[in-house]
């Protein structure tokens, strides 16, 4: 009874989740990735002071996740319905579990930001009222940092689990997606926080934190490339639906976004800037910022590609 | 002893057998594609103008000036075939699983997948998760909506779903498949019927009796 009866029409109009959701996935990835890097460095090096990178990662994690939430709310059919997600829960739903994680994570990023910016807050007279709060928060700093590290990784993974539950779309419905989103969140989050550390918090371009991050950058990028390769091969060797979705990699506008944005800007850009240029240029501030921007833009393209190409190729 | 409880968990709960299992059968041999089912749906469920919880897709057969979806020619002898596109009322419903607020839920008494509009946040997770793309946003209420066999509009007052009542060709049959004396049970016992995209493992409650005859 092969293909006895089927239909191709649908009742929904356009894609269910348009670009604001891709931007949300992007911001959540940056937030979780930046904070994970900062916490890992802090624990690994037993740091007790607030380093420029730590400050930058804390602020970025709070600002980006807040912007991400804004995108999420604005994408609801009626943004005023937002409270319903906070009041009603369904623990079979990935989104509901994510809401719980985020409702702990977001206040904690604010706490970490307050602790990280202690010196800056003390130097601004208007913000002096926050000092007693910071003093109180210091008592819970260590547990807060451990929990926020776990939650930061969870938030990165959550954005992958969230969309991989959409079984109609072969590109999206893969088990590698959470891992891919952790890897790309780490690389773009680290890049964003590095740039903020040097530009806003006057960090040294060649500090030991930066060296450590620079060393971790390439293995993470390799993991990202590997995960993408795994998705592509599983589609190519998969069933009819998966095979037709493989077209996303070689035809249409989203193939351009993938090859120019994700691969060209996101991977080839930083590699060329670091390894194909003279040592004096590759160690310059200019190369540092361009390479960081490449990494962040590549990640945005990756989220757009996965979401749009993913929803375009339905079974 | 270790494996025993795992074995038990896969056994269906006994109470399920006493509950109704409402199914709808679409007989493609009888459907003429008149589309009156859509109009009846719109009226019965107070939907926005021109909107219904189900649509008809033409699979083959020429309409003057249009290309036949089956053979691709403007003039052909293909038989006109239609298919009902609507919520498949899955027993294993992805929309119910993913809904963060429980707005998309299974009605306790009837087992029908329906909506609690007062809980829906409009996140559209259910729309992306539905393997059949059978859900949509009602533009007037801003919440997700699906065909629930007219649970609140017609079944509640003891009537058949509006589309079933409207169909003049008996192409739609509705009833309780768990009641062995119901017409729909008897029909399914003697007719070959298929489900759409069974590979998703959603166990839909909509059954289709397809046209299988190709020529004389």
Taken in chain order, the helices and strands of chain A follow as: HHHHHHHHHHHHH
CATH C-level class of chain B = Alpha Beta
Beta strands of chain B, count:
9
For the sheet with most strands of chain A, the description reads: none
Strand content of chain B: 15-25%
| N-to-C span of chain A | 18 Å
Number of domains of chain B: 1
Q: What is the second-level CATH architecture of chain B? A: 2-Layer Sandwich
Question: Which term fits the overall shape of chain B?
Answer: globular
CATH superfamily of chain A: Formate dehydrogenase/DMSO reductase domain
Helices and strands of chain B, in order, run as: HHEHEEHEEHEEHEHE
Beta-strand level of the residues of chain A, as a percent range?
under 5%
Mean pLDDT of chain B: 88
Model description:
The complex is a heterodimer of chains A (315) and B (216). With 315 residues, chain A is an all-alpha fold. Helix content of chain A is 73%, strand content 0%. Chain A has 13 helices and no strands. The longest helix of chain A is centred in the C-terminal third of the chain and has 29 residues. Chain A is globular and about 75 Å long. The longest helix of chain B has 9 residues. About 5% of the residues of chain B have low confidence. Chain B has one domain: 2-Layer Sandwich (Alpha-Beta Plaits), CATH 3.30.70. In chain B, strand 6 and strand 7 form a beta hairpin. Chain B is built from seven helices and nine strands. Chain B has a three-stranded mixed beta sheet with strand order 8-1-9, covered by helices on one side. In chain B, strands 2-3 form a two-stranded antiparallel ribbon. Chain B is globular, with a radius of gyration of 19 Å. Classes of the chains: A mainly alpha (315), B alpha+beta (216).
């Amino acid at each position: 009874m092969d293909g006895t009866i089927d239909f191709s029409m649908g009742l929904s109009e356009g894609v269910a989740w348009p670009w604001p959701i891709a931007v949300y996935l992007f911001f959540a990835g940056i937030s979780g990735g930046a904070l994970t890097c900062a916490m890992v460095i802090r624990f690994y090096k037993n740091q007790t002071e607030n380093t420029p990178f730590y400050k930058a990662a804390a602020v970025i994690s709070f600002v980006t996740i807040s912007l991400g939430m804004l995108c999420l709310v604005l994408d609801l059919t009626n943004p005023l319905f937002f409270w319903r997600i906070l009041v009603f829960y369904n623990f079979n739903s990935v989104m509901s579990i994510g809401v719980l994680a985020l409702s702990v994570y977001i206040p904690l990023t604010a706490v970490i930001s307050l602790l990280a910016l202690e010196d800056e807050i003390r130097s601004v007279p208007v913000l002096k009222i926050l000092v007693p709060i910071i003093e109180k928060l210091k008592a819970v700093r260590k547990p807060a940092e451990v929990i926020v590290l776990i939650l930061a990784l969870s938030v990165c993974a959550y954005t992958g689990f969230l969309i991989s539950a959409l079984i109609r779309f072969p590109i999206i419905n893969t088990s590698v997606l959470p891992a891919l989103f952790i890897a790309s969140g780490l690389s773009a989050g680290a890049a964003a926080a590095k740039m903020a550390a040097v530009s806003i918090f006057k960090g040294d371009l060649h500090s030991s934190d930066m060296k450590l991050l620079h060393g971790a950058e390439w293995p993470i990028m390799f993991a990202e490339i590997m995960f993408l390769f795994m998705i592509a091969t599983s589609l190519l060797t998969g069933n009819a639906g998966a095979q037709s979705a493989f077209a996303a990699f070689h035809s249409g506008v989203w193939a351009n976004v993938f090859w120019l944005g994700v691969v060209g800007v996101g991977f080839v850009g930083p590699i060329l800037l670091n390894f194909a240029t003279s040592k004096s240029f590759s160690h310059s501030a200019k190369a540092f910022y361009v390479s960081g921007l490449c990494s962040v833009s590549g990640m945005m393209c990756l989220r757009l590609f996965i979401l749009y190409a993913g929803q375009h190729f339905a079974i | 002893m270790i494996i025993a409880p795992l074995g038990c968990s896969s056994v269906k709960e006994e109470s399920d057998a006493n509950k109704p299992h409402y199914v709808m059968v679409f007989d493609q041999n009888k459907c003429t594609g008149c589309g009156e089912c859509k109009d009846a749906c719109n009226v019965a469920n107070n939907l926005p103008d021109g909107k219904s919880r189900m649509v008809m897709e033409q699979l083959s057969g020429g309409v003057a000036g249009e290309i036949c979806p089956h053979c691709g020619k403007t003039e052909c002898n293909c038989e006109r075939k239609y298919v009902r596109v609507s919520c498949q009322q899955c027993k294993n419903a992805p929309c119910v699983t993913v809904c963060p607020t429980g707005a998309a839920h299974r009605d306790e008494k009837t087992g029908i997948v329906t909506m609690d509009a007062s809980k829906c946040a409009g996140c559209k997770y259910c729309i992306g998760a539905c393997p059949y793309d059978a859900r949509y946003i009602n533009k007037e209420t801003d919440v997700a909506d699906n065909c629930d066999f007219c649970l609140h509009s017609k079944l509640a007052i003891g009537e058949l779903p509006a589309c079933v009542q409207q169909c003049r060709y008996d192409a739609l049959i509705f009833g309780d498949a768990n009641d062995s004396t119901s017409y729909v049970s008897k029909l399914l016992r003697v007719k070959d019927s298929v489900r759409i995209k069974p590979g998703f493992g959603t166990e839909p409650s909509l059954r289709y009796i397809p046209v299988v005859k190709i020529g004389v």
